[in-house]
Amino acid sequence: MSAPTDPGPTDPGPTDPGPAASTSSETEVSARGAASVRLRGVTKAFGTNVVLRDLDLDVEPGERVVIIGPSGSGKTTILRVIMTLERPDAGTVRVGGRHLYHERHGDDLRPARERHVREVRSDITMVFQHFNLFPHMSAIENVMLAPVKVHRRPRSEARAKGMELLEKVGLAHAANQTPGQLSGGQKQRVAIARSLACEPRVMLFDEVTSALDPELIGEVLNVLRDIAAEGSTTMMLVTHEMGFAREVADRVLMFDEGHVIEAGKPSQVLDNPGEDRTRAFLGAVFEH
Amino acid sequence: MSAPWPRGAVDGDHLSYRPHRRWFRRPDVVVPLLVIVAVYAYLLLGVEETSFFRTRMTAKGTEHFDWMYFWHLVPLMWRGLLVTAKATVMGFTIAATLGFVLALGRRSRLRILSWPTAAAIEFVRSTPLLVQLFFAQALVRSTDALSLEPISILMVGLGVHYATYCSEAYRAGIDSVPKGQWEAATALNLGPATTWSRVIVPQAVPNVLPALGNFLVAGFKDAPLGFILGVPGVLFFANTVRGEDFRPTEPYILAGIGFLMLSLPAAWALRRLERRIAYERTD
Amino acid sequence: MDGWLLEPNQYELLRQGTLVTLQILAYSFGLGVVLSLAFGVARLSERRWVRGVALVYVELARGISSIVLLFVIAVAVPILLDVGQASLILLGCVALGINMGGYGAEIVRGSIQAIPRGQSEAAIALNLSPTQRLRHVVLPQALRIILPPMGNLTIEILKGTSLVSLIGVTDIMQAARNIRQQQLFNATAADVTVLFANILVVYFVLAQVINLAFRLGERRLARRYEGAAAELPVAVEHAGAGIGG
Hints:
By secondary structure, chain A is an alpha/beta fold. Chain A has helices at 19-23, 75-82, 114-121, 139-149, 155-168, 184-196, 214-230, 242-248, 266-271, 276-287, and strands at 37-46, 49-59, 64-68, 90-95, 98-99, 102-105, 108-111, 124-127, 202-206, 234-238, 251-256, 259-264. The interface between A and C is medium-sized, with 31 and 21 residues.
């Protein structure tokens, strides 16, 4: 994983708020604690396949953004770049006003040390399509791991908080069961509780219902609705659940070939798409 | 099974479809095979065991490591190494054949055959080769009927010890052939000889070869133990030189280096062979 | 040959030798495990030079013959490095440990690679440090896969301990030699055969005990959590052949 190339003398561009603005908390962190996410000029290629090309993206604190698009369009890659699972080849990512991959030295931006990345990353968390629960731990242990090891909370406090979160997702009764004993929907809900335990300011959801049997999707969407209603984190979701998007999203972004080709309110993008490509995609999705 | 399947994956990027040919008509199988046979013949016939490892110069007593002396020892070490290699190859031949027999015995449906075989395999596998060699030597000495050269005892010892490993490899290989193949052979009324030689073994072999190769290299690493029997291998060389010249460092380190120079390339060649075979099985 | 048993006092000597053997096994195993973990993880490091060093170690440790390594470490190295003759047992354990580490490292590496990538990604998403990721997420799961081949490897090390008798340590083999010395004049070759047959049995029993211990360990781990274990590549399962001697 190579560090992103150092932005040249022409960067950061005119859109980058100067030092003063990046430390002010009004535009970058909401009252409830949610953080903004801002991408500038992000490029990511896998071999010769350029998945993200000079991408600019702004997500306001507390906003709920849904990203749709065909596979291979790069929508998952954006989330993975924000989560530091992939390093961008160029460009900057800012979370809550702080650069994720760079550090400020006076007026310069330099590639960040690992410590800095970890620090900024502590505000971000992600829920995966295939859950990725730790099979050798029970549900409550899965939820407790990060608070105890990363945030250094005492075990009793972490356990109490963890049970609270499991209660919230409706799985307090399964706290001592291992993932192997849970259904897909239950696993995903535990995964969400696990992510919530980190008290994140940005939550990323990568097609979290795509691997579930149809009848189990609803319970997960309910949890997502609750999180959205609370408004204490920024949410970015990649999903095919258009009904959910219409209900919860503040903004819908249509992705294709590494670019946002259409963005707007759900009613706009989903019901009255301006672009042909969007219309074609939605048509294919709604076919079945 | 007669449809051509990609065999061209072996040579580079393009997948060329070649018609299926029996193995003895394929150059990429025959050539390595000839090389192996040539090496085998050389080791069997061309290497003589001499017990004389006489050095013709003395090392400087004051230094810990004398380079001139070191280089001087190389031809002697090489002679010992060849003897060790010879014992390995011969022993492995025994191991490969005996292993097959043991595998069949182990798989037999007759309890009276499979059980003792399994017990014997387990016993030999769990006990050190060193002890087995001493045991064999004592056994040979205790009867007047048998009189074996040290190198023969080593070969038999290696052979029996590694036969147990090889038998496991054969078993795994045979078991890896899908049940359906056996059933098809029955459905076509093929006799046991045909079933084994034309259906089972050709499919089992690609799985077995890498494991066998591993055991060959492993056997090479155990063969130096022959010195306890008096076999003039690479450790016998080191011990003799140390005993005569009172210089332990150079001979042992040289033995180590010489050993690595044979075993490492062998291991690498083996891994390449594994990859080739894995490549070819594109089902 | 009359009777396959030995005299009681000879069994006593064997017993003492067995204790030494077990001691050597324990120390070598300890060193071997540490090296296996260290180099197994190092093989997967992000830094190229770490990977390179680990690869060199693994290739050398696996490519060398155990007995040759033993002689080099016990005899040549002390003189080369100008240290006095340290305890022979220590040197023997170091040699065996180094040897085991090479094979063990490959087992560890293979098992870590068998853990689905999603697990470490989830750990990253929770902002665990790389060390925490290894300790709490990856290694516990890898342990299940490591145990079976590690059990085989341990038996190979047990067989390897017999080699230390050749550098002068009084383990079972050396005890046997001592018995032979005692028997020198009255011993027939048949007696010697009986002696070694007994020793084979001792090793066999020890090997089965080790086997049992690892099986129990595997079963306890399996009970801890459900779910299919990932498969270990075949090459790693054959790791260890050639140490034993």
